[in-house]
Amino acid sequence: MHIVILGAAESGVGAALLAQAKGHDVFVSDQSPIQPVYKEKLAAAGIRFEEGTHTLAEILTATEVIKSPGIPEKAPVIQALREKGIPVISEIEFAGRYTRAKSICITGTNGKTTTTLLTYHLLKEAGYKVGLAGNVGFSFAEQVLADEFNYYVIELSSFQLDDTYLFQPWVAVLLNITPDHLDRYNYSLEQYAQAKLRITRNLDSDCWFIYNADDEVIQREFPAVFCEANQLTFSLHHRPDYHLAAYYTAETRVCTNLKPGLDEGGEEISVAASSLIGQHNRQNTMAAVLCARVAGLSDEQIEQGLGTFRNADHRLQLVAEIDGVRYINDSKATNVEASWYALDGIHQRIIWIAGGTDKGNDYTSLVPLAHRRVEALICLGADNEKLKAAFGSAVDHLEETRSMADAVRRAAGLARPGDVVLLSPCCASFDLFQNYEDRGRQFVQAVANLVQSTKT
Fold first, then answer.
1. What pathway or pathways are given for this protein in its record (predicted)?
2. Is 237 a catalytic residue?
3. Cα Rg for the chain, rounded, in angstroms?
């Protein structure tokens, strides 16, 4: 086949290398400049590529197109391919054709990365030959080319799922569905939910579907989906309306049962050794524990793995404790729901740093939490008026700044021993920072400077 790859970053270059190895004629096109590391890979493999443009005359000769998940359906190049009837698929779909390894695939609006990394860690620590792929930044296709793993743990965004057709996970996980990226789905939550539920479309009786029984959108949308898989639901509480596969019996104990239709057979696992913070991470932990149970890990292996796991940066990351005050970096919280989880999960008095580029946020759900938990709000953004209007009467103290160093300095001045200084912006970062990682790194550096100043 003549395979055209649209997008020459991690997933696109990995797909190009796999396609060439399988004997296909390959051409790579990226409308933006290609990063040197990826350009070198393509050149070393002798794969033709272009950057800074899409040459339609070449692209429309494709037998099949593999596109980057970042390219929207409305892009002219995709519309031209649709008009000509040329199949457009994702790297995940393509790579899935060439591996017999079992895939554990995780999606949801919030918590995907944490759950994916934790599941991968549990399997790897137990000695499994397992790869990490998908939205976490590692090409599934390039790993399939090496064919070294028996299992893959794959984080899947809705954009990646949109272009899958025959790909079949062994275990599919749906954590939650809340409004996000609706501009890609005609501003329809239902369409976005169906994109997430696409993860179930090829599951059969040998597969497993793990999902959150506490999520209202999943409860509403899932019954319309035909699913033959073994279904495992989890909840923060024991619920009579569900045959639950996992739920908490105490703050740090989870009861799991892979045959939830039966009363007997449940096993309790301690999660006391986990360093994860917040209610949403208690849900993420249950999902990962169920994946590990399906994969055959013992309770002892799971408990040991939970104790050695460290989450990715910028996700409720404990940065330091200074004079009895904990500083937590949750810069990845770029939407209201993510910040709700952070505020709900921290039970100490909070000095909250929030703000940035508003994405049409509705802060209503955060106001009661802020009233109960937040002592002071430091607004960090180019335009803080909406935050000030939403929380001005909910918190005792509110001020604003446009500097992370200043925000951390002011927070430290307001905090008392036992408090938490929390960066959980619930907004995008592009007004004052390059991205959420840059915002988080500046927070970490500001805290490090604070540590240094206390020593002098």
1. Cell wall biogenesis; peptidoglycan biosynthesis
2. no
3. 23
Q: Is 110 flagged in the annotation as binding?
A: yes
- How many angstroms separate the CA atoms of 317 and 152, rounded? 25
pLDDT digits (tens, 9 = 90+) for 283-312: 999 999 999 999 999 999 999 999 999 888
- Cα separation, 322 vs 207, whole angstroms: 48
Tokens of 66: 């593999």
Catalytic status, residue 181: yes
User: Residues 99, 147: contact at Cβ < 8 Å?
Assistant: yes
Q: Is 456 annotated as a binding residue?
A: no
- On whether both 76 and 97 belong to a single domain, the answer is no
Parent domain of 46: 2-89
Q: What is the pLDDT of residues 135-185, one digit of tens each?
A: 887 899 999 999 899 999 999 999 999 999 999 999 999 999 987 778 788
Q: Which of 181, 243, 359, 388 is catalytic?
A: 181
Tell which of 67, 89, 111 closes a domain: 89
Three-state DSSP at 82 gives: helix
Question: pTM for the full model?
Answer: 0.84
User: 25 phi and psi, to 5 degrees?
Assistant: -80, 130
In sequence order, the β-bridge partners of residue 357 are 428
82 touches 68 (CB < 8 A): no
- What are the per-10-residue average pLDDT scores of the chain (456 residues)? 96 97 97 96 97 96 95 94 97 97 95 95 98 92 95 95 95 90 82 91 95 92 86 92 91 91 75 89 96 97 95 88 95 90 90 90 93 96 92 95 96 96 93 94 96 78
DSSP conformational letter for 245? S
Catalytic: which of 112, 121, 196, 314? 112
Catalytic status, residue 371 = no
**Does residue 228 sit in the same domain as residue 146?**
yes
Task: Count CA atoms within 13 Å of residue 246 on its CB side.
Answer: 26
**Six-digit token pair at 264?**
């007997």
Given 67, 102, 121, 135, the catalytic residue? 135
CB contact set of 4 (below 8 Å; sequence gap of 6+): 26, 27, 28, 29, 58, 59, 61, 62, 64, 65, 66
* 84 annotated to bind ligand: no
Contact 382, 400 (CB under 8 A): no
Residue 114 known to bind ligand: yes
**Residues 335 and 438 reside in one and the same domain:** yes
308 marked ligand binding residue: no
105 and 253 co-located in one domain: yes
| Amino acid sitting at position 376 | A
